Amino acid sequence: MPATTVTIKQKKPVTLSVLSGTTLLDAVRTAGISLDSPCNGNGTCGKCRIRILEGETQTGKLDALKPEDAAKGLTLACQNIVTGPVTIEIPEKTRVTGKMRITDISEKEKKTLSLVRKERIREGMTPREIYHTQDLDLPHPDLGDNLSDDERFRRGFRKATGLEADISITTLRFLPDILRTSDFNVRAIYRDNGNGRAKILYVAGGDGPMPIYGLAVDIGTTSVAALIIDMTTSKVISKASTGNTQASYGADVINRIVYAEKPGGLIRLRKEIVENTISPLIRTLIRETGILPENIVSAAIAGNTTMTHLFLGVSPEHLRREPYIPAVTHVPELMGYQTKLPINPAADVWIAPSVASYVGGDITAGVFAVPIWKEEEFSMLIDLGTNGEIVFGNSDFLMTCACSAGPAFEGGEIDCGSRAVPGAIEAITISDDYEPSFRTIMDEAPVSICGSGIIDLICELKKTGIIDGRGKISRDLNSDRISFDEYGIGRYMIASPDLPGSLAEKDVYITEVDIDNFIKAKGAVYSAIATLLRSMDLPVEVVSAIYIAGGIGTNINIRNAIRLGMLPDIPEETYYYIGNSSVQGAYLALTLNEGKAKTEEIAHNMTYIELSADPAYMDDFLSACFIPHTDRSLFPSSDI
Amino acid sequence: MPATTVTIKQKKPVTLSVLSGTTLLDAVRTAGISLDSPCNGNGTCGKCRIRILEGETQTGKLDALKPEDAAKGLTLACQNIVTGPVTIEIPEKTRVTGKMRITDISEKEKKTLSLVRKERIREGMTPREIYHTQDLDLPHPDLGDNLSDDERFRRGFRKATGLEADISITTLRFLPDILRTSDFNVRAIYRDNGNGRAKILYVAGGDGPMPIYGLAVDIGTTSVAALIIDMTTSKVISKASTGNTQASYGADVINRIVYAEKPGGLIRLRKEIVENTISPLIRTLIRETGILPENIVSAAIAGNTTMTHLFLGVSPEHLRREPYIPAVTHVPELMGYQTKLPINPAADVWIAPSVASYVGGDITAGVFAVPIWKEEEFSMLIDLGTNGEIVFGNSDFLMTCACSAGPAFEGGEIDCGSRAVPGAIEAITISDDYEPSFRTIMDEAPVSICGSGIIDLICELKKTGIIDGRGKISRDLNSDRISFDEYGIGRYMIASPDLPGSLAEKDVYITEVDIDNFIKAKGAVYSAIATLLRSMDLPVEVVSAIYIAGGIGTNINIRNAIRLGMLPDIPEETYYYIGNSSVQGAYLALTLNEGKAKTEEIAHNMTYIELSADPAYMDDFLSACFIPHTDRSLFPSSDI
After folding, report:
1. B137 and B65 fall within a common domain
2. What is the pLDDT of residue B1?
3. What are the b/e assignments for A23-37, b being 16+ CB within 10 Å?
4. Does A133 lie in the same domain as A65?
5. Count of CB contacts below 8 A, A vs B?
6. Which member of B151, B313, B331 has the closest CB to residue A329?
7. Region B34-61: what's the mean pLDDT?
8. Contact flag A146-B175 (C-beta cutoff 8 Å)
9. What is the distance between the alpha carbons of residues B499 and B478, in angstroms, rounded to a whole number?
10. CA A291 to mean position of chain CA atoms
């Protein structure tokens, strides 16, 4: 196959040399440009829209390309095979850029973290105070005191701390210069190993403050969140989140695993999460705070099983094939350099343990962050991310299962869906004459609709009769907000610049396809909860607390989620929205001595139920794909 | 400075782009070609001979270029500065190629190593039997037994050995494929940590033997020696030695340190010792024996302080400047991958501790290999390498010092000198009519003269009156073997194709310059011994044993060394030639549990005397630069 070229017209145009037969999607990726492509080239999502300006390609099926996109001259990158020189243009909205969000952590969040930690300490756990700094003013060497640099450092350190210093070869390579440029006046960060020895983590010259930080990361399929923690006070300093740039290789874990199996795919996906997602996130966090990577001496990382494999560069291929075997669930403690993250090369890096292919470290860390594992009463954790994971139990046992909810709860696979970004609609009501009233995040002009908004919206659509129990839009209503496209797919318009008095600069709407995606997601979650309870032969009424975690957003209206048949119909006050329990667990593991071991113990004691091996699950799921449920008696309080 | 080109005419010619102003020596080095250059470009050794075929250069001082070389159209690469395009040719003998010597380790050597080890065990040390192999036939995963690969391995390993397995992330990356390609039938090499845990070093599929090897290395300034040891039986499997390819950057440690301080110099010298010297040595050893790098799970490496710094990539710059401070004397235990050697990436690598700038791990390992540190009687270790190091003491104290002998004892800086290679003259006598009789190594035609041969030769030259006490050749003798060049430098011809009945294919001779180099070397050693004894106020007669170690060769004639004034005049039977004590110490550290700690203890307890800080040393040295000594009463038994 002879080589040809693809030229991308942009501010700085690039011309790529590619083999004939390559898709435009793959060609563009070789330039390091990520296109929105949740179906990863299957031609089913219609998102990887580009425009061909010059040259011919061989075009495949364009069924997924929306008529309005086609009208703009767009085509799908994944469905065009390069056969000769071609010049293309990539619209801004097709490009995936993991947009960083630095959020000043709210006082409420800080308080929650601090409270949970204090409670654990009250119950007997101990603060992890093993990292310290030490100033050393060492005597200059002379012929009478000609100790080597490493021994001189050890002697001074011993004198100051009473501990024997273990110095890595990396530090030794820099030590002679640091000693001499700082006139033998140095500062060290060390870890007290508790056995009379100390691991030297960083040596710098001069005076001034020498902060010690920890890093807690939650690697989600769609979003990644990180906290920087002052390891001296255990306080959270800053927080940030960003999109997982792997998303351009598929929206869900299955598509990522498929991509990882392609030649070079695993390396590419590891690069995306390590170099293009978490590293910029860390750099942004420390740039804001003036921290050096060397000051980050401890990290705790929690992610689902696939994310953990990809982060480590371990092939996830067997996760998706029966009998669904992870390569690794208990990762050995790593050193910073092994992660390739911008942190201290000798940092202690702990990866939260996984339980099974679809119950990962995000869940074990999350369980540690809530009281399920230590109370006699039964409680439940429901993590609503791209996958839905459910844990049920008490101090005696923990059962868990996972269902593939898809990215709908995080706004994925919803035309106008998004994460909880400024301008996202987070709450909505619809009046009897089909007119919406909504609230957006930070009260900005509406740009999208996030997880909690979608729940409200679908609830209101059903309540007002705009949709039926299957999510189909009524053909009999008279409203400008309702329309049907040439394929007959219905759409409800929430905001639009074309509507009088609207602040919107773009259309924000929901389609029957979106609603269908959401119904499948809520059906998957509800039927998973039902299956888990059935496996223990217990009714939902035994559950004294349900903790809702995940990217669905702080403002989830639990009442509406129950009305929709997504969450069991038990009193609203049984539910607690706890946010990102995964990063909370990582925070606790960093700041409590017993945190890592307890999380490992939790992982060890969890019993995993493989839903695909449960013959009743599929029936349950199909019955739950209805609003609220085909068996209405399960939702007596639902009024829709 | 504009760029120009240097073309090297050879089988595959290369053209290098270099800056005007570069010496031809540096230009050639950028092509990865090493030229013989013991003075490292100072223009004093006359060895870096090349021929300029085309183009002009700016030529410096050529005093060191021998007339016969000049007659052949040769010039010195270090004294020619590139000013425009030039084409050169490099004679074969100017190129340095670290010629590998695989030596079937002799039964005698094996016996010595085994005896010393057995003696240590008899005295209470214990065999290091911590590396083992384990076959595992693991059950296949299914939905009822869906443990992850790492947990499955741990469970099987626990069942078989009773130990908890620690698996590195590197092994985890390969484990899924190894398990499945070997049908879950694997073999593992592990280290029993002694605390109920095991470090997994290697996992492979299938059946068949799974050997476990150790590597002992002595890094000398001039030569490098390595042993491969069966860690199950502690037996030496094979042995090899080679020239240190750093030699083309200077014959002695000072020149190497100077080169290491140049931009890129440290990296270059590390590359030379790691990639171009030790790695090929290991590859040759394991190619001969069918061992995989992964089977080498433990290594002990001993070298002088400069070699240790360069091997580790730690700058040796402060070693050569008062107050002579090493960057590191006690190196942390490393993992195989940190060394960049072709061994198991998780191998335990121990670097013998140094004492001071010029007393390194080769000496501390060497001391462990001889009984100095454990007997009540006084004894002495003299290591005759490029540097001479002396240790004196008993079980109560150990004193040490070092002198710069130069490479003469290993045949360096001697025109026809060489290491103990086949064809090297190792013993020689001269008759009253000035005719020599000699023995060569392996009885091959004479090609050079090695350390032990040089001692004999100079002794005989003095005895027959060919040279005087200062090493000057008599102008009054009538012999074809004696000649003087145009500068008046005398030469004694030992063998030559021009002499009747000679098997020699080349001239083998010694010059007054060679003799002078040797006298300085022996003077340095003798005066160092004298200084060390004086520091304790003890006469040489208290010494009950002197162990001679180093590259000087098995066949050193101790009697002659005493006659020359090189070694103290005490009974010949007090002396033991023990060969390479450094690699022996490394062997013992690998095969005895207490070996590493004992060597560290020895290093810790050694008191270093800096000769350059001893005002009497220089006088002692000058007095000793005479055959046998300016104070003849010190050598009553010397008859020459």
Report:
1. no
2. 54
3. bbbbbbbeeebbbbb
4. no
5. 127
6. B151
7. 86
8. no
9. 16
10. 24
For residue B323, cis peptide bond before it (omega within 30 degrees of 0): yes
Is the preceding peptide bond at A211 cis, omega within 30 degrees of 0? no
Computed over every residue of chain A, the mean pLDDT equals 92
Integer Rg of chain A from CA: 27
Residues in chain A within 8 Å Cβ distance of B150: 327-330
Let me know if residue A193 belongs to a domain.
yes
The verdict on residue A584 lying in a domain is: no
Residue A405: the pLDDT is 81
Statement to judge: residues B136 and B79 lie in one domain:
no
User: Domain containing B137: what range?
Assistant: 129-205
- Say if A448 falls within a structural domain: no
Question: Which tens digit of pLDDT belongs to each residue from A542-571?
Answer: 999 999 998 776 678 999 999 999 999 999
Query: A625 exposed, middle or buried (CB, 10 Å; 0-12, 13-18, 19+)?
Result: buried
Answer yes or no: is A71 within a domain.
yes
> Which positions in chain B touch A354 (Cβ < 8 Å)?
148
Which of residues A94, A119, A148 is at a domain's end?
A94
- The shortest C-alpha distance from B366 to chain A (Å) reads 21
In angstroms, what separates the C-alpha of A185 from chain B's closest C-alpha?
Answer: 16
Residue with tokens 């960093």: A590
Q: Work out the angle at residue B363's Cα, subtended by the Cα atoms of residues B358 and B368, and round it to the nearest 5 degrees.
A: 155
Q: Which residue of A has its CA nearest to B325?
A: A148
Q: Is residue B498 domain-shared with residue B443, that is, in the same domain?
A: yes
Interface test with A, best of B172, B261, B338, B614 (most A CBs within 10 A): B172
> Phi and psi at residue B543, in whole multiples of 5°?
-75, 120
Query: How far is Cα B597 from Cα B599, in angstroms, rounded to an integer?
Result: 5
Per the CB < 8 Å rule, is A142 touching B173? no
One-letter identity of residue A624: A
Q: Under a CB-based contact definition with an 8 Å cutoff, are residues B394 and B375 in contact?
A: yes
Q: Tell me the per-residue pLDDT of B588-614, one tens digit each, with 9 for 90 and over.
A: 999 999 999 999 999 999 999 989 888
The distance of A120 to chain B (nearest Cα, Å) reads 29
Question: Which of B301, B328, B357, B617 best probes binding to A when mutated, by most A CB atoms within 10 angstroms?
Answer: B328
Distances (CA, A) of B272 to B179, B224, B246: 38, 12, 6
Judged by CB atoms closer than 8 Å, whether chains meet at A327 and B150 is answered as: yes
The alpha-carbon gap from A415 to the nearest alpha carbon of chain B, in Å, equals: 37
Residue with tokens 């667990």: A585
Residue where a domain stops, chosen among A163, A183, A205:
A205
| Residue A140 and residue A84 in one domain | no
Over 80: is that where the pLDDT of B530 sits?
yes
- Count of domains observed in chain A: 2
Q: How many helices (H) and strands (E) does chain B have?
A: 17, 30
Same domain, A86 and A18: yes
Instruction: Spell out where A20-157 has E strands.
Output: 49-54, 57-59, 75-76, 80-82, 86-89, 101-103, 131-137
Complex-level ipTM? 0.86
For residues B231-264, one letter each, b for 16 or more C-beta atoms within 10 angstroms of the residue's C-beta and e for the rest, the string is beebebbbbbbbbbbbbbbbbbbbbbbbbbeeee
Asked if A169's CB is within 8 angstroms of B318's CB, the reply is: no
With contacts defined as CB-CB under 8 Å, which chain B residues touch A175? 327-328
Contacts of B358 in chain A (CB under 8 A): none
Total length of chain A: 640
* A72 & A17 share domain: yes
Give the position of tokens 């939650």.
A218
Query: Please, which residues bridge with residue A337 across strands?
Result: none
CATH (domain of B169): 3.10.20.880
Contacts for A267 with CB less than 8 Å, ≥ 6 apart? A313
Say yes or no for a CB contact (<8 Å) between A173 and B315. yes
For residue B172, which residues of chain A lie inside 8 Å, CB to CB? 312, 314, 327-328, 331-332
Q: Which CATH number covers residue A89? A: 3.10.20.30
